[in-house]
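Please annotate the following for my students:
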Amino acid sequence: MLTNPVVLSVIVMTILCLLKLNVILSLVVAAIIGGFVAGMSLGDTMGVLVGGMGGNAETALSYILLGALATAIAKTGAADILALKIAKLIKGKGIVLLLVIAFVACLSGTVIPVHIAFIPILIPPLLAIMNKMKMDRRAAACALAFGLKAPYITLPVGYGLIYHNIIRDQMGLSGMEISTGMVWRANWVAGLAMLTGLVIALIVYSKPREYNMLDKAIDETAASLDNQEEIKVTGKHYATLVAGVAALVIQLKWGSMPLGAMGGLLVMLISRAIKWNDIEEMMHGGIKLMGLIAFVMLVASGYAAVMRETGGVEALVEAATSMMAGSKFIAATIMILLGLVITMGIGTSFGTVPIIAAIYCPLASALGFSVKATILLIAVAAALGDAGSPASDTTLGPTAGLNADGQHDHIWDTCVPTFLCYNVPLVIFGIIGAVIF
């Protein structure tokens, strides 16, 4: 199994990232190695990689434009006001701040489906508060990851409804008809695993950690907190609020995040919350804030295309099937861990469901798993790698906000903590739930 191109490629990618090689370079090198093991020529591998990058083109554009919107909002000072309000609300209690962050992240995928767009707006102004409390940002990364991931796994609302419908449709195509409502009735186990992971993270990363005030804006926010200054709310702040609402409404109306971001920027221009001469600065700020994430998502899409082209996923599933020995426990363990490898490589839990459902449904039925257990196996196996993967927006988003002052490492401060805190409980709870169901 170690000679499988997908497995070998994912291992290489993980090792290179842990050695702090740039994520984009790690993905490219891992793709080349995966293609080589599969017998693809270097030219073909790079061709598939570049050709597949278009799969995340809309997402990349969204992140750049949302970054520009976040920069514009930050320029008006609206985010600083929100930071001061939150500071007064939490009254110096770090655990309360982390729970507020997790709650807002939950809203971003359900009631207000903006996904990670809120992070570069909300988190950088809060860094001053975190620094004053000596909060370990790894705990904040885990809180954000919980809010980005737990709702879509567990609740059929917002992105969760999309995820549950994909599971329903793909299981139906594989001969196992279910309703959307059946998914959450099985996935509450995964939600409990995520909640367990959050509690573990809050305990493990509760010790004080020192950070320097390196960023001028963050330093100014800290001074405001020390002096308990009340920033006056002006017309441009109200215009900023209207811009945020406009961005959300447009996104929901036309289903386009880039269009929503453009709408928000347009409102801020018309209201003169930002000036025409500031546009260049806004775009540069957006690229600086979210450019890396955008490029990582592009390359990750190309990497996923190479992994599919190698045929290694199908071979991996066939090899794993032969190891199950008719045991439900062994089968559940292998199926869930297999999903972890695939999702770490593909980079999206939503895109992993179609790959594994076609094989898992007949396999689970033959091994005597119930429909409820099959739903849980597919949902957990597909979602596993989303937390901890260097190329997942569940990790890239938190890093974009927490590393605003350059003191938060993407791999060791976001990917490793979220991987350990969430994937381990998901594996354990998923196996136990599948066997019991």
Summary: DSSP finds 20 helices and no strands in the chain. The two ends are 29 Å apart (CA to CA).
